[in-house]
Amino acid sequence: MRYSKLFGKTIKDTPRDATLVSHKLLYQAGYIRESTAGRYYLLPLGLAVQQKIQKIIKEEMDKAGAQEMITPILHPKELWKETNRTNSVGFELMSVKDRSEMEFVLGGTAEEMLVDLVRKFQVSYKDLPFNMYQFSTKFRDEMRARGGLLRLREFVMKDAYSFHATEEDFKKEYQKMKDTYTKIFNRLGLRTVIVESDNGYIGGEYCHEFVVESEAGESRFLTTEDGSYAAHEDVAVFKRDNKNIDEEEKPLQEVEAVRGTTMEDGVKLHKKPLWQQIKDVLFVDENGRFILAIIRGDYDVNEVKLMHSVKAYRLRHATENEIREKIHSEPGFISPVGIKEIIEKNIELIIVADSSLRTIKNAYGGANKKHRDLFNINIDRDYKVDSEGDIALAKEGFETKDGKKLIAKKGIEVGNIFQLGFHYSSKMKGAEFTDINGKKKPYYMGCYGIGLARTMATIIEVSHDDKGIVWTEAITPYKVHLIEIQNSKLKISGDEIYKKLQDAGIEILYDDRDVSAGEKFADADLIGIPVRLVVSEKTLRQSSGQAGEKIEWKKRNEDKTELLSLEQILKRVK
Amino acid sequence: MRYSKLFGKTIKDTPRDATLVSHKLLYQAGYIRESTAGRYYLLPLGLAVQQKIQKIIKEEMDKAGAQEMITPILHPKELWKETNRTNSVGFELMSVKDRSEMEFVLGGTAEEMLVDLVRKFQVSYKDLPFNMYQFSTKFRDEMRARGGLLRLREFVMKDAYSFHATEEDFKKEYQKMKDTYTKIFNRLGLRTVIVESDNGYIGGEYCHEFVVESEAGESRFLTTEDGSYAAHEDVAVFKRDNKNIDEEEKPLQEVEAVRGTTMEDGVKLHKKPLWQQIKDVLFVDENGRFILAIIRGDYDVNEVKLMHSVKAYRLRHATENEIREKIHSEPGFISPVGIKEIIEKNIELIIVADSSLRTIKNAYGGANKKHRDLFNINIDRDYKVDSEGDIALAKEGFETKDGKKLIAKKGIEVGNIFQLGFHYSSKMKGAEFTDINGKKKPYYMGCYGIGLARTMATIIEVSHDDKGIVWTEAITPYKVHLIEIQNSKLKISGDEIYKKLQDAGIEILYDDRDVSAGEKFADADLIGIPVRLVVSEKTLRQSSGQAGEKIEWKKRNEDKTELLSLEQILKRVK
Predict the structure, then answer these.
(1) Cross-chain Cβ contact B33/A120 below 8 Å
(2) CA distances from A446 to A114, A367, A417 (A)
(3) pLDDT tens for residues B461-491?
(4) Model confidence at A387, in pLDDT bands (50, 70, 90)?
């Protein structure tokens, strides 16, 4: 490609709202332009990179035995009603009606579509398992679209769906996909951490994000130095250390406590450690149930874990009014002790305790009355809970169950794999296969996604310098970037080299413009193609006396230059 | 691919509504399934064919210097308002609002998007011309979606848009695209006729459809035996033969005419030839204007030509009431003679005459009164027209201007190319380039489309037999279809041959199922892969005594079978 002809030249400006380096560089180097927030044009350079990413994904998915197909973008809303996803999805659906008033959802993910397709066939145990994937445009009506290609409202996603006779069989495919994703991201030049994640309303233990460490990311996870453990903040587990567990239980005592409503106020007033205080957080779920989460004072409640433990979709904090009027308690002084006796009739209150409350004795905290606290509160003796388990937020410095220190990190989620189990097949009529005994059974499913444009942006976030993008061989839009510094004395011209490399089947971008050498060099660095070739009077002078004219060779990520013959270049590039 | 693992096996049934052979075969052979009317899943086989078509189009577009990019599917409605296309497009737009109430159109074509992109850049005459194309999903809310992939509501289209400094420059690109399309359809194995077509509200003489002759098509065109002329029914021109042109003009005469309202009633009553009668057809346009089209009695009015001649978007026939109340004439007795004197005040009436009225003298027809006709009507002398030209519908048997007989044909439009001229660049603010004198000017544009799925269906419409699809080498989903007829005596098994061909990089579908030979043969014919290989006891017995085991080779479109060694097969397939 002649750069003079390429649509989408470099530009000095950056978009006003650009904060991320990938956003700035993709814009400046002529890879993308914004249409509306979160929706981009991919210019020829940008599309070329996306296509290379797509090719690598396709190759590895095919090798793993997955089969590519494609669904319509407009999903009949009827299908989403069958699974109740019109109410439960985390991203906002966009709906559209056709001229006959039929309602469609703009596809965000395609579980229902795949199940709907598969149930059109008479699937038997012999046909299972299979894994079908597509590259298709997805729509998410995100509240905030982040800069550039990192969080889009419209993007191409590779989404795959596997169908199995049993959970056991699914597990094999899950491992295969984990390996396949690892290969894909390796080939793309990305170092990913496989992070245990929350599987939302579907649940189950098979749910992982492939995360690339980056300050630009929104995925917060905890890992150990040796990498043996990595889990998203939402699900990370840790070991609660025992505190005064050997202390004898003292009698419960109510005291006056003229203090503020924070945990620190309690510590200051009573001059007791934070960990000995009970932290009480009162939530209300989507059905109006009250949930009292209690935890050791030095820990925080993890709302995702809490939601799963009570099977809620959404939680919000109770208001001060609700605490007073419905619970008959007092903000800042809530206590599990006796709370069920004082609440308004007809109110459902569920007390959920973190297991950390088993690591302390003689705790202190509110007394459900203003300016009154309790001392020597002990679980079982003074209060009972409806549910007990892990509802704590893991943090840097905490320890894993096997005693390794947790480190907090941020990263970009480039892929995810998770079980769907029977979630869709049990809800959708006829989503079943015939087993070996001729009996109809729902299939067990898995799901596997990679966002292409986000992957592109992520590669730039981790591979750039202050001059521009640094592409790897695998996904660069062109293999070499040829620059001619014009001079009438050139015996071998840029045009000739361009033609020869093109004829050899090498993807080449040729800067044939009539602009300064400096501008050409700067543009080459900005665009980021891994190999730069320069032909100029200087390169020819330096090569005089040797056989043939020489061309300067430089790698984008090295400073060293070499003078090579065309033959040598052809050999190296191939 | 092992057929036992392929998703989308053959089936005996056809869809209830299927009338087209491509629809039936794509369904039966496992290439497609319907989601909702006009929206299809492409199963692995179907997508493989579409991808081959896409690859060929991409290769030829790239060779022609066009650059691939991609626009979002959601087009901001603002852009379509700039060009007034929300009112003027022929297909129904689908609109959607996001959570912030911003309105989008689901892309049907992308002229506005491309212009919007290009105007974000400072384009100078040096950057022009360029041609950008994309493969993207398009949406058309068609009233009727036809069976299978021939007329879809959602489909992948290759749409290209070229930008030029001048009309002269556009003409070069137009010719290049005509040549490129010819190459593309040749490679796809389609014989296309390049048919002059109507360019709708944009107009201009550069507008052609690439049509494949087929009874399944909706494109009606007229052509000559030698193919030197081909034009869509909407625009086809022909020579009007002179009738009684040398006759002397006789005095106008009003007579009693107790007859019905058809042309035939006039012929019967007066015993004069049909061609001598004036045919009057009264229309109303979208602005309420009345248009009286008059033409020689043996011709019909071509409404497309008529619309262009009066610059109307839509025409409907005037009602009987309107003819009586507004025009003060009589249905079946309308006449251009004196009509402007009798119509209701404030009514705009435009009289448009076909040039065929110059080929007759002393015509007869209505007198704007019930049961009254006029004899010896002569143009200019008895009535004046507002506009005169070609508003006649060409028909089979008519002659071209150079005297060749027109033949009527039907076909499927697989591609189209047309000028956009300044239509979009003049309407959209900032859609301009800087010319050599530093002056801003709108660019001249062209547009070039191919529907991929329709192309696939068209290939089947013209390439099938009563057993199934007959793919060509270029777009077959697999190059060879291997069948093993199981037998324990086989020394070289299907599995081995499959592996060897796969290792040699040959795309192979391997029917490894435990079903009858007959079923495998029938499925192979239905699926339509060009080469069928059979390994069985029979093929081995026949090859005994010869060096190595032999495999039966048969082409899908031939009856002949041959026994070949694996080496011979590898050589032939490569």
Answers:
(1) yes
(2) 12, 48, 8
(3) 999 999 999 999 999 999 999 999 876 566 6
(4) very high
Q: Do A9 and B121 make contact, defined as CB atoms within 8 angstroms?
A: yes
Tell me the C-alpha distance between A401 and A518, whole Å: 57
The nearest alpha carbon in chain A to B62 belongs to A1
Q: Does domain A44-71+108-234+408-460 have CATH number 3.40.50.1000?
A: no
Decide if B143 and A41 are in contact by the 8 Å CB cutoff.
no
Q: What are the chain B neighbours of A70 within 8 Å (beta carbons)?
A: 41-42, 47
**Looking at residue B284, what is its pLDDT?**
97
Encode B71-109: b = buried (16+ Cβ within 10 Å), e = exposed. bbbbbbbebbebbebeeebeeebbbbebeeeebbbbbbb
B116 has a chain A CB within 8 A of its CB? yes
What CATH number has the domain spanning B47-233+409-460? 3.30.930.10
Q: Is any Cβ of chain B less than 8 angstroms from the Cβ of A73? A: yes
- CA-to-CA distance for A420 and A371, rounded, in angstroms? 49
CB B231 within 8 A of CB B221: yes
Show the DSSP H helices in B412-527 as ranges. Answer: 423-427, 452-462, 494-503, 517-527
From 3.40.50.800, 3.40.309.10, 3.30.200.20, 3.30.40.10, which CATH number describes the B478-573 domain?
A: 3.40.50.800
Instruction: Check: CB of residue B34 under 8 Å from CB of residue A71.
Output: no
Among all chains, which residue has been given the structure tokens 């190319």? B417
Q: How confident is the model at residue A539 (pLDDT cuts 50, 70, 90)?
A: confident
- Burial pattern B134-151, b for ≥16 Cβ within 10 A else e, equals bbbbbbbbbeebbbbbbb
Tell me whether B260 touches chain A (CB under 8 Å): no
- Sequence ranges of chain A with CATH classification 3.30.930.10: 44-71+108-234+408-460
A41 and B99 in contact by Cβ < 8 A? no
On whether the CB atoms of residues B360 and B249 are closer than 8 A, the answer is no
* Per-residue pLDDT band at A265 (split at 50, 70, 90): very high
Say what the pLDDT of residue B205 is: 85
For chain A, residues classed under CATH 3.90.960.10 are 253-389
CATH tag for A253-389 (out of 3.40.1190.10, 3.40.50.1820, 3.90.320.10, 3.90.960.10): 3.90.960.10
Task: Look at residues A472, A500, A458 and name the one whose alpha carbon lies nearest to residue A209.
Answer: A458
Residues A70-91: tens digit of each pLDDT = 999 999 999 988 988 776 655 5
> What's the rounded mean pLDDT across residues A406-418?
97
ipTM entry: 0.93
Cβ of B69 and A47 within 8 Å? yes
Tell me: pLDDT of A545 over 70: no
Please state, in angstroms and rounded to a whole number, the distance separating the CA atoms of residues A496 and A500. Answer: 6
The whole-number average pLDDT for the span B74-96 is: 81
The lowest-confidence range among A386-400, A428-442, B74-88 is: B74-88
Q: Looking at beta carbons, which residues of chain A come within 8 Å of B47? A: 68-70
Contacts with B, A 520-559, CB within 8 Å: none
Q: Is B430 on the interface with A (CB under 8 A)?
A: no
Residues in chain A within 8 Å Cβ distance of B36: 72, 74, 76, 102, 104
Asked if the Cβ–Cβ distance from B39 to A74 is below 8 Å, we say yes
pLDDT (tens digit per residue) in A491-521 = 668 888 999 999 999 999 999 998 999 999 9
| A541 pLDDT higher than 80 | no
Instruction: Give the minimum alpha-carbon distance from B348 to chain A in angstroms, rounded to a whole number.
Output: 34
A47, A137, A141 ranked by CB distance to B73: nearest: A137
Distance from CA of A71 to the nearest CA of B (A): 5
Across B257-275, average pLDDT: 97
Is B55 near chain A, with CB under 8 Å? no
> What percentage of chain B exceeds 90 in pLDDT?
87
Q: Which residues of A touch B510 (CB under 8 A)?
A: none
Closest CA to B111 of B508, B475, B453, B422: B422
